[in-house]
């Protein structure tokens, strides 16, 4: 096993871990039908052998089990709290055939080679310091013709109207802080290039616009800004809170709007 664990997102290390877990569960439940439309376009189908990497609290793992009835389902996460939550979610849903294991994406023994038809990585790659290493390990786990779908963000595809100048300074502040932890707030538009470099083919891209029109202004702000505040160092919190108050007031004002593009990039093992 490898010893490297990225620090960009680890439950149990935040200022408010309970709120981080609540937000993570809420985030996973937003626009599920639209998310699964993108997953099916990427190649997810009934009865496959499915690998869910970076499963978090298991909301999506459980939905994959219920919606597609995979012949095999393995969920992996490097965080023990996430593993425990996933097991609980599956148990509550009556899913007893799925496997859940604590495992690091940088472990080249991630799974036995060629075991899976489809793999999903949801909001994982923004937290990885070595995305190519992780991609190669997932590639090894796929059968020939098997597909990986990555869902992730790029804050350069974040927009608001009206757009206060504080939005760009806030996003730049967060991008710098997450990069210091090994993460990348701009990973979404890089994913196709990474997949090509890691040896995948048949690369497909689509985008889901998550906006205040879709989920409401309050839910949008909770979803989009909560983690960003957690990643900032203590020395920047006061300035960031001032910026964020102005941004949220603008988004939640009459006529305010904001949205972010969520990338779905998939590719095949050839």
Task: Provide the descriptors you would attach to this structure in a database record.
alpha/beta, Rossmann fold, 7-stranded mixed sheet, 10 helices
Briefly summarize what is shown:
It contains ten helices and seven strands. With 270 residues, it is α/β, with parallel strands linked by helices.
Largest sheet: 7 strands, mixed
Q: Give me the count of strands.
A: 7
What's the CATH H-level superfamily name?
Answer: Vaccinia Virus protein VP39
Q: Residue-averaged pLDDT, rounded?
A: 92
Strand content: 15-25%
SS element count, helices:
10
- The CATH topology is Rossmann fold
**Oligomeric state of the chains in view:** single chain
Structural class: alpha/beta
What best-fitting shape do the alpha-carbon axes yield?
A: globular
Percent in helix: 40-55%
Order of secondary-structure elements: HHEHEHEEHEHHEHHHE
Radius of gyration: 18 Å
**Strand order across the largest sheet:** 3-2-1-4-5-7-6
CATH architecture: 3-Layer(aba) Sandwich
End-to-end separation in angstroms reads 27 Å
Mind telling me the CATH class? Alpha Beta
Low-confidence regions: none
The tally of structural domains comes to 1
């Amino acid at each position: 096993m490898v010893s490297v664990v990225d620090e960009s997102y680890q439950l149990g290390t935040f200022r408010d871990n309970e709120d981080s877990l609540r937000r993570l569960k809420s985030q996973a439940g937003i626009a599920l039908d639209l998310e699964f439309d993108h997953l099916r376009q990427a190649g997810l189908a009934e009865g496959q052998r499915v690998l869910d990497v970076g499963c978090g609290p298991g909301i999506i793992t459980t939905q994959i089990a219920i919606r597609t009835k995979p012949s095999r389902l393995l969920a992996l996460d490097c965080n023990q709290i996430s593993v425990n939550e996933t097991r609980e979610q599956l148990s509550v849903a009556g899913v007893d055939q799925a496997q859940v294991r604590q495992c690091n994406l940088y472990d080249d023994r991630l799974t036995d080679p060629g075991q899976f038809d489809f793999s999903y990585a949801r909001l994982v790659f923004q937290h990885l310091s070595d995305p190519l290493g992780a991609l190669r390990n997932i590639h090894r786990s796929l059968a020939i013709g098997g597909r990986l779908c990555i869902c992730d963000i790029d804050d350069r595809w974040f927009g608001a109207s009206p757009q206060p100048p504080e939005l760009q300074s806030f996003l730049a502040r967060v991008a710098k802080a997450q990069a210091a932890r090994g993460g990348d707030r701009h990973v979404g538009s890089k994913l196709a290039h990474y997949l090509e470099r890691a040896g995948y083919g048949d690369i497909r891209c689509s985008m889901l616009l998550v906006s205040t029109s879709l989920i409401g202004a309050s839910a949008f702000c909770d979803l989009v800004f909560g983690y960003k505040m957690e990643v900032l160092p203590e020395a920047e919190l006061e300035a960031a809170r001032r910026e964020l108050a102005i941004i949220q007031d603008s988004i939640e004002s009459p006529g305010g709007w904001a949205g972010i593009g969520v990338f779905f990039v998939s590719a095949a093992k050839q």
